[in-house]
Amino acid sequence: MIDTIYCGSSSACFQLEGDTPYYARSGYTVSVDGEARFHGDTNVFSLFGLAPATDYTVSVRFDGDSAEERITLTTTRETCCVSVKDFGAAGDGVHEDTAALQAAISFLPEGGRLRFPAGTYLTLPLCLKSHITLELDEGAVLLGSTERERYPILPSTTTDPITGAETLFNGFEGQEFACYQSLIHASFAQDIAIVGRGTVDGNGQNGDWWQDFDQFPAKRPRVIFLNHTKGVTLHGITVKNGPSWHIHPFYSQQFAMLDCAVQSLKDSPNTDGIDPESCDGVDIIGCRFSVGDDCVAIKSGKIDMARKYKTPADHHTIRNCLMELGHGAVTLGSELSGGIQNLTVSHCYFYATDRGLRIKTRRGRGRDSVIDHVLFENIRMDKVLTPIVINMWYNCCDPDRYSEYVWCRDPLPVDDRTPRMGAFTFRDMDCTGAEAAACYIDGLPESPIASVELERISVAFAEDAEPGMPSMRNHNVARCRMGLYLENVERVRIKDVALSGVEGKPLTAVGCGEIVTEGFEEADGLPEN
Hints:
529 residues; 23-stranded parallel sheet; 45 strands; 7-stranded parallel sheet; globular
């Protein structure tokens, strides 16, 4: 069955129903109105170059099958389509095109589409407005300037001189900070689409963005920053070489990222793929990530922002994505003081990331930091060092990271700084080539994790596995081929879990409450708490 998950005026995105992570059960041919367009092999595919307000019939024929699956759609209307060339953009990668591009965006009417033909458009930051579409043709590159001193520095907040009311404009790593304006920036805008097979290149490797950035007068820009937006869609584009994080939806609603790619060098600093922060309604579907930090990191601020704005991350779906070569494939935190709820990650393939499904928090994130109703299912992992990590002792990104308050293993008083972890379900996972541990879950003694369910999971360790750190915490200990490790969890359910190549006990439980196992013969009986 084919589902249409996006339809604009010139492009559409589709999803094939099935149980296989990221890749389809077999190759297939996509046809439009009876004419073959391309051969695909992933569960999500797209069409570009469509005409506005036009009916189409899209069909898929799997290799070796005679029958076709069909779906019909009608593209949306638009008021006009204009080229950036009409506004004087050179697109030669030498002459700066900022003025021409910003003029084209500013004068585009509502419902209009601004087209970037093939070429390289060297630019300083651009500001988007509501009700427009940017279309980057294949071969079109929006290239960020390396002249950092020409990037505007935007305030974190402003204060109304009459009412005293604050307006939030910027933040980074869970706090209010002045930031350099991002290459593509939208603030308090809605109904925006950036589509096509072109590229938005932050050019981070060619400037000084990755060097001594702690000494900059403001926090680094992102490639795309969306502040208090609603109804923004990224479809098909490649985003690469970010000065810091690549895509940062911030206190936004109804954001979709479909069939996109995010790329950066493996050793590039803090170049997360996408970090939706305190957003409601985020869909990340059919996307590919290969970055220098976490591929997807869901956030909701540190404790001061959580107390001030009280906005959790809610209703997030990550499906049919490929994550490669990052620190974590899908990460929650560590800035999650506003809480995270109603998250589903499914049908994804993780390759050669340090950790697969990674949740990280610590004392000091606060009582609003409630993480609950989280489901991870139908995941394939290969060469992921530790497939599952829940770490309540995270020791990065804070001035007090090495303090006794963070690392003390004794129970501390529960107060307004104490975070809480709710229910987590991990099921239908096939993991090969693991090295450090199969599962490393480490809760706080004064605030145990409420519930962890592991069901229909297989983990096979690499024969040449080397010791590594399953989590990032103080006084860390390297592990190698460690089985299931759970500490300070109130309820544990393990069903139909198979481990291969474990060294030592398959199951270690410390300070846990109820433990139920079924179809876990390797456990050799229940462990002593």
